[in-house]
Design brief:
The complex is a heterodimer of chains A (537) and B (46). Chain A is 73% helix and 0% strand. Chain A is mainly alpha-helical. In chain A, α3 runs antiparallel to α11 (230-246). Chain B is mostly helical and 46 residues long. Chain B starts with a helix and ends in an 8-residue tail after the last helix. The chains are: A mainly alpha (537), B mainly alpha (46). The A-B interface holds A 1, 4-5, 8, 11-12, 15, 20, 31, 34-35, 38-39, 41-42, 45-46, 48-49, 52-53, 55-56, 58-60, 62-63, 66, 523-524, 527, 530-531, 534 and B 6, 9-10, 12-14, 16, 18-22, 24-25, 27-29, 31-32, 34-36, 38-40, 42, 46.
């Protein structure tokens, strides 16, 4: 190698000192001399280019060979089974939520709430949601027909077309036609459909309950868990998978291969690396610490990540906790409130049913044979009744969460208990989303709900599972003091205004440490990244 | 002779660390670029 590097120097000297001009002879002779000299120098250069290109190729082959041996195997499929188990356990935990009933457990509440606000432009989504309900009921051996949607004149007529066209290519056109026809007569058509679905969950409560029990039992048997160990098994699985992923060379290196992060920033001694590590130290620099202290420091930074994630979630959902605290103050007024509201709903539902029967007679199919009545007036009356019921169901949802608060929460309950109750009722969470500007449409609300639920069931949550609802703890200060005692420099600013930046620094340090603890090194990743850069040029 | 040189080079390449190998690649690559830039073009009238 050194011989070759010397040769490079000689090349340069030879080329730069190559005499290209002659000062002697005639003008023509000087010109010829120049032409010959240029050709001669070019011949030398080309010969060298040929030689070095061959060497470059050999080096490339050697690098390529090493990179291929080094690139971590794709491990994505290794998590499939664990993910499947985790999802099954999530469903089991959801099924066995002690705060709600099958309306929530089977996600009918989510469908109903998502149907409510879809406007004309989204009416195809409404059909998709109805389809979802039809499939869910079919699983419970309930084959829904248009007659099941005899909630109002409009929901019934809409659903006749729905079921008639369900398997036809013209489904979307047919539904658009009936939607346009009914919508101008009844702009609340969507609400009628929504309430008819809600009503179905009451009508078929027994069958749905049976289905849920059977599905729950099967899932628990298949997952080999029971009520006592389902949470623990779930937590263990999550922690185990997280630990595996933390040191997975494929996942770690992919962050750099995808171009999201630059490996040069993460190399030992790189300014950004030194800055991130030293940020958490009071006096000394990270490189000055002995190995034992470095080890402790790394463990603590790894643990802080969980604390920061929990703090972020806590800050985000603090208004929800405050709302529950406020509701808890009126706890005594909730006694029997839900039952009383339910009774009111049932009374009004009976009235609506009578109106519907009066409109159609005993059987909607024989409308033409029923006695002559003022149907237009009855339609208006029925619409008003549905509007009333919509409001009552809203109040019922509110009474339902208050009922859960009344039955299950007191001053000694934890923040986790309160948040879990919130996560048990999607209608409540959606209302809070609207209030807190968490999004503007159902897809965002569902995503927010998913994040909220994931946050609550995070096994590494610490203070929300321990802090009591009636305690007024300054969490930021508790964290600040804890890490000061551990000699980790985290400021109050970090925990308040700069939480995102703090998390970035933690992620940085953890990523470096995780790579060092894995079977791939920072140098290996850099080597692969450099090779790919060569390969792309 | 060429084969011998090749073998010697390959064995030398194998003994290099990843960093040295990459550095070597860059140097050879740079030299080729330098050589390419050194090629002179004669003007037509010449």
């Amino acid at each position: 190698m050194n011989d070759l590097l010397n040769e490079f120097e000689k090349d340069k000297k030879y080329i730069e000192e190559f005499p290209l001009e002659s000062t002697e002879g005639t003008k023509k002779m000087m010109k010829n001399y120049h032409i010959n000299a240029v050709n001669s120098r070019n011949a030398y250069v080309n010969k060298k280019i040929g030689k070095y290109s061959n060497i470059l190729h050999d080096i490339y082959v050697e690098i390529n060979k090493r990179v291929n041996e080094m690139i971590p195997t794709d491990t994505s499929s290794e998590y499939t089974d664990a993910n499947r188990r985790i999802n099954a356990l999530k469903k089991i935990i959801k099924y066995n939520n002690r705060y709600n009933d099958i309306y929530e457990k089977l996600d009918i509440d989510k469908t109903v709430n998502n149907i409510s606000d879809n406007g004309i432009s989204d009416f195809s989504k409404v059909n998709a949601l109805i389809g979802k309900i039809v499939r869910l009921f079919a699983k419970a051996s309930i084959n829904l027909t248009a007659s099941d949607f005899d909630y109002s004149v409009y929901s019934y007529e809409y659903m006749i077309v729905f079921f008639d066209s369900l398997d036809k290519d013209t489904f979307n056109e047919d539904m658009k036609t009936i939607f346009d026809k009914l919508y101008w007569e009844c702009p609340n058509l969507i609400t009628h459909i929504k309430l008819s679905i809600r009503h179905l969950s009451t009508k078929y409560h027994k069958e749905l309950e049976e289905y849920y029990k059977k599905d729950n039992e099967e899932l628990m048997n298949r997952s080999d868990v029971n009520l006592d160990n389902m949470h623990m098994t779930f937590n263990d699985l999550i922690i185990d998978m997280k630990e595996r992923m933390r040191k997975d060379p494929y996942l770690l290196s992919n962050k750099f291969f995808s171009g999201t992060l630059s490996i040069y920033d993460y190399m030992d001694g790189a300014p950004s690396s030194r800055k991130s590590f030293n940020k958490f130290l009071f006096e000394k620099e990270y490189d000055e610490l002995d190995d034992k202290i470095k080890g402790n420091f790394n463990d603590e930074i790894s643990a802080i990540k969980d604390v920061v994630v929990e703090l972020k979630g806590f800050n985000k959902y603090r208004p929800i906790i405050l709302d529950i605290k406020e509701r808890l103050k009126n706890k005594d007024s909730y006694k029997d409130a839900y039952q009383s509201k339910l009774k009111e709903v049932n009374t009004e539902e009976n009235k609506r049913e009578k109106m519907f029967k009066k409109y159609y007679g005993k059987d909607p199919k024989f409308l033409m044979f029923t006695k002559k009545i003022n149907r237009d007036a009855l339609k208006v009356e029925l619409n008003e009744q549905v509007k009333l019921l919509d409001r009552l169901y809203d109040e019922l949802d509110d009474a339902k969460i208050n009922d859960a608060i009344y039955k299950h929460l007191d001053d000694t309950s934890t923040l986790y208990d309160a948040l879990y109750i919130c996560a048990s009722f999607y209608s409540y969470f959606k209302k809070m989303c609207e209030k807190l500007d968490f999004g503007t449409d159902e897809i965002k609300y569902l995503k927010e709900y998913h994040n909220f639920y994931e946050f609550i069931i995070t096994p590494t949550n610490n203070f929300i599972t321990k802090s009591k609802l009636n305690e007024d703890i300054d969490i930021n200060n508790v964290i600040f003091e804890k890490y000061k005692l551990l000699n980790i420099n985290i400021t109050m600013d970090d925990l308040t205004d700069n939480l995102v930046r703090l998390e970035d620094d933690i992620d940085f340090v953890n990523l470096v440490n995780n790579i060092k603890a894995s079977s791939i090194s920072l140098e290996d990743i850099k080597f692969i990244v450099d090779f790919r850069r060569i390969d792309n040029n | 002779m060429i084969e011998e040189n090749n073998e010697q080079l390959n064995s030398e390449l194998k003994s290099l660390t990843n960093e040295e190998l990459m550095d070597f690649f860059s140097k050879v690559d740079e030299q080729i670029k330098y050589l390419n830039n050194s090629i002179l073009v004669l003007e037509e009238e010449e």
